[in-house]
Write a structure and sequence with these properties.
The protein is mainly α and 248 residues long. 82% of the residues lie in helices and 0% in strands.
Length: 248
């Protein structure tokens, strides 16, 4: 015959194991988010250094590929600003409006989304640990009332009742012990991610201003080349090369 008291005890111990795994999982994801934010953050002085190098290569020598290589090499390759600048340079011919759209997509899909997913895992672990503790409490109370009901057959019903209640209370306590630091870590990580987003937007302003100037310069070059081609063919710029003929 199945011993219900033993079964409930095994479930209670399995809840301890699940809570331990949750604690490890949440802590691991929190560490990975801290590591990711640290790698992707670029101080302002080094950000200015990167933008100056890119501006010199692109505007003065037209070496766009070399500028992209600067973004993809140490010490800038892991930073958010370098990754976004490289995307902007690779699509320099598409114009300022399209580049802004691409930068927003790159930032949210390739940079922030992975860290936000890990942050969501930390929050989930923090919320799930107390719920498992509550489940352990319910199971402990079921075991306790079951022992009271079987008091006639038990050799020491008082001890079994106390053991069942203690099991339920301990799972709740462990769940709260796990959840409290994980919630603090999650709040701190949310603030750091917000700070990384604000810093990146501020540092990108200088690059977008450079793209705007470069876009205007390229448009002027195209108009000048078109005017030169029209002048060499003996036509006024914008007059067209095909004259319409009325059908007879």
């Amino acid at each position: 015959m199945l011993d219900i008291s033993l079964l409930l005890k095994l479930i209670g111990y399995s809840i301890y194991v699940a809570q331990a795994l949750l604690a490890v999982w949440g802590t691991y994801n929190a560490v990975m988010v801290y590591r990711g934010i640290g790698k992707r953050t670029l101080p302002d002085d080094r950000a200015n250094q990167l933008l100056e190098q890119v501006g010199t290569l692109v505007a003065k020598t037209g070496a766009t590929k070399e500028a992209i290589d600067v973004c993809n090499r140490p010490p800038f390759w892991h930073t958010t600003l370098a990754q976004l600048v490289a995307v902007g340079l690779q699509n320099l011919h598409k114009g300022l409006a399209k580049i802004k759209l691409l930068l927003v997509m790159e930032f949210h899909t390739q940079i922030i989304s992975s860290m936000e997913n890990r942050l969501a895992s930390v929050v989930t672990a923090a919320k799930l640990a107390p719920l498992l503790g509550l489940l352990g409490t319910v199971i402990g109370m079921i075991g306790a009332f079951g022992n009271v009901g079987a008091g006639e057959r038990a050799t020491d019903p008082g001890s079994q009742l106390a053991a069942s209640i203690a099991l339920g209370l301990w799972t709740t306590a462990v769940g709260l012990i796990i959840a409290s630091p994980l919630m603090l870590l999650a709040n701190d990580l949310q603030g750091r991610l917000r700070k990384l987003r604000d810093r990146t937007e501020r540092q990108l302003q200088g690059f977008l201003e450079f793209i705007e100037v470069e876009d205007a310069r390229r448009a002027a070059d195209r108009r000048s080349a078109s005017a030169s081609a029209s002048a060499s063919s003996g036509q006024r710029p914008g007059s067209g090369s095909v004259r319409a003929t009325a059908p007879r």
